[in-house]
């Protein structure tokens, strides 16, 4: 529950929180930040005991978002969006 307050996520029932698979879904533009900021943030969160989801596949512009990715988003308590130079033009 403390993670929800820190990240500003809306409060949920304890049953709903217990069913979540990830604490945080990290959304980013791969080519801009994957091997730099995003990987460092992900590792720091993991060391702190936060269950994260980072999509390792690279979507090309126009590709459909997979059902597995949509499910990961739904199974996360909160999202961190990393805005970068090309974020707005990425899939």
Which features characterize this protein?
single chain, 91 residues, alpha/beta, three-stranded parallel beta sheet, 3 strands, 41% helix
Rg from Cα? 14 Å
What proportion of the residues form beta strands (DSSP E)?
A: 15-25%
What strand order characterises the main sheet?
A: 2-1-3
**What's the rounded overall pLDDT mean?**
77
Structural class: alpha/beta
**What's the total count of β strands?**
3
Quaternary arrangement of the chains shown? single chain
SSE order, one letter for each helix or strand: HHEHEHE
- Shape descriptor reads globular
Number of helices, where a helix is a run of at least 4 consecutive DSSP H or I residues: 4
Taking the alpha carbons of the first and last residues, their distance comes to 31 Å
Report the sheet with the most strands, covering strand number, pairing sense and barrel closure. 3 strands, parallel
What share of residues is helical? 40-55%
What are the low-pLDDT stretches, counting only 5+ consecutive residues below 50? 1-17
Domain TIR: 20-91
Keywords: NAD
Protein name: Disease resistance protein (TIR-NBS-LRR class)
Organism: Medicago truncatula (Barrel medic)
């Amino acid at each position: 529950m403390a993670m929800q307050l820190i990240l500003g996520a809306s409060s949920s029932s304890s049953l709903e929180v217990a069913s979540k698979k990830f604490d945080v879904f990290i959304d980013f533009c791969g080519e801009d930040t994957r091997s730099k900021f995003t990987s460092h943030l992900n590792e720091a969160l993991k060391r702190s005991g936060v269950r994260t989801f980072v999509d390792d596949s690279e979507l090309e512009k126009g590709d459909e978002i997979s059902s597995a990715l949509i499910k990961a988003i739904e199974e996360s308590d909160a999202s961190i969006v990393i805005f970068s130079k090309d974020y707005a033009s990425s899939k």
